[in-house]
Amino acid sequence: MKKKIIILLIIYMLGVLTPITLKKMHKKVLEDSVIYEVRIVAEKINLRPEVSLNTEVIKQVYKDETFKVIKYYEGNSYNWYNVIYEDGKTGWIASGKNNSWVEVIDGCENNSKEEQQWMKKQYS
Predict the structure, then answer these.
(1) pLDDT in tens, 31-69
(2) Would the pTM count as exceeding 0.70?
(3) Into which CATH architecture does domain 34-123 fall?
């Protein structure tokens, strides 16, 4: 009887721990994918789930907030940054073509100094 209880307890604990472990793994993968950081320079802009002004607004972000960027997309009218926010969630923020809404503030420690300088030059 004790063996069955212990086995059931272990199975239960594995089931409970798995989502937590997966979330930590997902966050680690995202952090390893960071290419640089940006700072919001506009008073506020919208964070969206996709690269489109026609999608819902997840939340608004405000001047001087910083975000780690994992992807960059240069659209026809806007530059889009896929950023990490709130403990591993991701969303997209847009900036005018002259980066009037965000500024690149730093490369990432995962990249060499040369890569950081190149990225800053490319995306500033």
Answers:
(1) 556 778 899 999 999 999 999 999 999 999 999 999 999
(2) no
(3) Roll (2.30)
